[in-house]
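## tool: complex_structure
## caller: assistant
## args:
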Amino acid sequence: MSAADCKRWMELTDQAAVGEHLTERDQAWLAQHASSCGQCSAERQFYTSLRDALGRPAMLVVPSRVTAAPIGRASSRRPLYWGLALAASVALALGGRSVLRKSRPASAPPLAAVTAQVLLASGEARLGLAPAQAGQKVPHGERLSTGSGLACMGIANSFDVCLAGASAAVFALDDARQIVVYLERGALMARLDHQPAGRKFFVRTAGAEVQAVGTRFSVHLADDGNMRVRLHEGRLAVRAASHISTDLAAPVQASIARDIRVAPLSPAAIGEDKLLADMVEVVRPENRASLTLTSTPAGADVFLDNVAMGKTPLSVSLHGAAHLRLSLPGYEPISVWIACEACGQSPQPSIERAFTLTALPVSPPDVSEKPSPIRHVAAHVSPDQLLAKAQALRARGQYQACAQLYRRLWSEFPGSEEAKVSMISLGELELVHAKSPVAALEAFNAYLRVGGALEREARFGKIRALRALGRHGEAYAESARFLRDYPTGMQAAALRRESYGK
Amino acid sequence: MGVSDRNDVLALAGQAAAGDPRAQGQLVDQLHRRVQSIALSIIGNALDAEDCSQVILMEILKSLASFRGGSLFAWSDRIAVRTAIRHARQKRIRGLRFQSTDNLDELSLAIDAIDPFDRDLPRELREYLAQLPEARRVALVLRHMMDYSIEEIAELTAVSPNTVKDRLLHARQQLRRAIRRDQKLDSSRGRA
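## result:
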């Protein structure tokens, strides 16, 4: 079989695909060639399979390994599920009163007495379709998802898994000795104590698998479906869908696609995992009580023992007393100790705390007390004139004078668009030219407190400032939120490149 | 009652359009797998496709009054394709990115336990589809799965026929490279 024959086969099939007529002789030759050429046969098979897939959706989705055993039983429920749900809903909808609602077939019963429990749920964290709460039991086959929040679950009192924002994972028992977390999207951090003999713990994605023994590691599922593993402690065995496998010993990171690439664990990777790594250490399995926190307004950052745990409303399993800090830009932070006198008692005690945050007056960033070289700028100038002047100074490289004008704009015209824009410019200037990430962060935060059309730029600047300050955990969390809110664009591409080397 | 008979189909559609829950259930039962396949192949991830499948079935049931006979599948396919393309476009506009790895076990639960693997292909069908950009995937699916003509695809996707041809040829070339590369990898592994 010559390359020329294959080339002709490709050309003819492409012609047919775009609607050009083929002679009977050509068609016969195509069939004959494909029957004797493996490569062309595989390509033809693809199109045959694609045609067959109409009406066979299983060919177009990953088969659920979670539910592989009971799938026959589930399928027998399917016509009833669809028929009843749709018929009932559509009957209502045709009357203009309702829309279809998603429902979910019941999960398969647990295969063994291993249990899982929600340890932390913040923001939009959900267990199945309902909001997740610390202390809730996670049924076999159930999905824990985070949305804009964070979540952790503890399994069998011996390993804890924390999910980053925009992540989803399913807890399952493949058999009595195999405990599996299927990472469907996003990233997770796992901390695993030594397991009883014979018990195995896996994290799986559609294309790869990690088996851990006495280990602390994170797994990231990239948009391209590839898995990235960062092993901080212990050992792992990783296996790609192509059946290539290897053992890893900490500290290393590995990228798993068709093959497995291993590299030393970089400081940047450690920093990016810090948020989840700290969190997974805080949600210890023993002596727990369920703490539910709410704040007015909602969305305050919650720190337990100085570890960021997500935003309010939040529920977390607590062990013993903990220091709690609530922080929301523009509001007075709250710092209290939460006592847990009943921790460890059965049933698990519940603690509910509601906080009201006090708003701070919007204050401008510090105005330098140094003598200003731009005193000649008249006090009665308009904000657009001040901004133009600042831009001119910047163009001439007079960054210090320019920064002072930006600050003056903010203090003299606090509500103006020019003042708001000046905070973005000031942040960039402080970050890039003055090498002062603290001042840059202050400027970006000032903009974010009032909000505006340049919020994306302000948030991107804030992430860079946090990184420059070495606050990698916060930067990682901000990056995750940024990518969720602005998944496309230059900044998102830059963040992904920096985070994953993509 | 099957839907092969023209009169039966018309009668069933009429009853469903009039709000008969039993007729609607029968119709949904006839169409839902096909609709799922179309939504999955065009949208590319199970999570959105599930939502879209329900919207499509709603659209079909609401449009039944305009069904004038002929092939029920052909008629419903066009509604499904239009709705799925619109759904994918809305997702894109809202900035939600296509995630080829998204998977819902609900959907897997709701389908028969048929063998999803094609032994003659180095990888699963959906993995190859997931590699393609949305526009090319839609063109390929409409042409090779739905068997639409270039002109029909152009009308459905609101682009010129030449653009459809261009997308289709690029999709085919991309798939060809992937399939051949995977075959080589498999054969070299086999030798090792």
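## assistant note: The longest helix of chain A spans residues 71-94. The two ends of chain A are 39 Å apart (CA to CA). Handing back to user.
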